[in-house]
Design a protein that fits this description.
Length: 345
């Protein structure tokens, strides 16, 4: 049985947890044919996802060439990738000539996307989220593709609904969500045209110690800032569990493409989570507004049937988050804006 610490003490320990492969993932990589490429490896998720894949491959003692592609990779990340034996290629994925220069690869994980500041540069948002997927779907038409999407393509739903399921029709509110739906449509088009095996991951929301909905709420409680309850409910999943699910989803790519929700099993209350952080910090949270009857919620029962339940409980993540903030741990400094209800990010 996997053991987890009571506290995450440093960056190295956090990175080990986020990239620790499970037994089922290791077994899967013993069956997977071909090499692996991560497009957009330098973002919030890419490094730990690629490292988990590398560790799983090493555990199988099967050699696979693992590549990561990004516009920019900072020197510290580059050093870490090199030490692990992950080859990196830097270049602009929006450059058609560059993307066509990339080597053929059997297994593609597509992580490139734009959310933060998307409303300030809508043409670039659409280019990254819709045009780039079209280029990737064309160039990697002979590959198996796992492509990140977002639960934001769903509408706000009643709390009592249990969350949106994969068969629900998307109602993309705002141009960010619309451009992400465009991403899905481009991969769907490629899957239909070329019989490319594709799986689209609608993620909602991944959390770890540097960023996420729990960090957003915890910071407000700790700093005596009012917590807005209007969007009063949410889903989260520990990024290590999410990484495991996403990598294992490779075996379920198909043509026509498949959609899969990935999030945690609970519908969490902003109020209750804030009160728990208040208890851990020894402060009384302040609240404004009242809970709306709807929220952006996803139902991941289909993923749980395939992969089992997440191993890290939300109660443990809340404890880790409080300890991390009390110790002055490093933060990404990019709020999720999970409270937004009009699709403007």
């Amino acid at each position: 049985m996997t053991e987890f610490p009571d506290k995450i003490n440093n960056e190295d320990q956090l990175e080990e947890l986020l990239s620790r492969p499970g037994v089922e993932l290791t077994k899967m990589f013993s069956r997977v044919e071909g090499d692996i490429m991560f497009l957009g490896i330098s973002g919030k998720i890419g490094p730990s996802l690629a490292k988990m894949a590398k560790r799983a491959c090493e555990d199988t003692e099967i050699k696979k060439h693992i590549l990561g592609v990004a516009l920019q990779i900072d020197p510290e990340q580059q050093k870490c990738f090199s030490e692990m034996g992950i080859e990196t290629i830097q270049g602009d994925l929006l450059d058609k000539d560059f993307i066509e220069s990339l080597p053929a690869c059997r297994n593609i994980f597509f992580l490139a996307g734009m959310k933060f500041g998307s409303v300030d540069n809508l043409p670039l948002t659409w280019a990254v989220n819709s045009y780039l997927p079209a280029l990737a779907a064309e160039h990697f038409r002979d590959s198996k593709i796992v492509a990140f999407s977002t639960g934001c393509v769903y509408p706000l739903v009643p709390i009592s609904s249990g969350g949106s399921v994969e068969t629900d029709l998307p109602v993309a509110t705002g141009e960010y969500a619309q451009s992400c739906l465009g991403r899905e449509r481009m991969f769907e088009y490629g899957s239909n045209k070329y019989k490319t095996e594709v799986i689209l991951i609608r993620l909602n929301y991944s959390v770890e110690m540097h960023y996420g909905v729990l960090i957003d709420i915890a910071i407000k409680v700790k700093n005596d800032q009012p917590v807005d309850l209007t969007t009063g409910y949410f889903n989260v999943i520990w990024q290590g569990d999410m990484n495991d699910f996403v990598l294992r989803s490779l075996e379920y790519a198909q043509s026509p493409s498949k959609i899969l929700n990935i999030t945690g099993p609970e519908i969490l209350s902003v109020r209750e989570v804030a009160l728990e952080f208040g208890r851990l910090f020894g402060v009384k949270p302040r609240f404004i507004n009242a809970e709306a009857e709807t929220a952006l919620l996803s139902n991941s029962e289909e993923a749980f049937k395939l992969f089992g339940r997440p191993k890290v409980l939300v109660s443990r993540i809340i404890q880790w988050t409080a300890e991390w903030l009390n110790d002055g741990g490093k933060l990404l400094g990019k709020p999720t804006h999970f409270e937004v209800r009009n699709g403007t990010f």
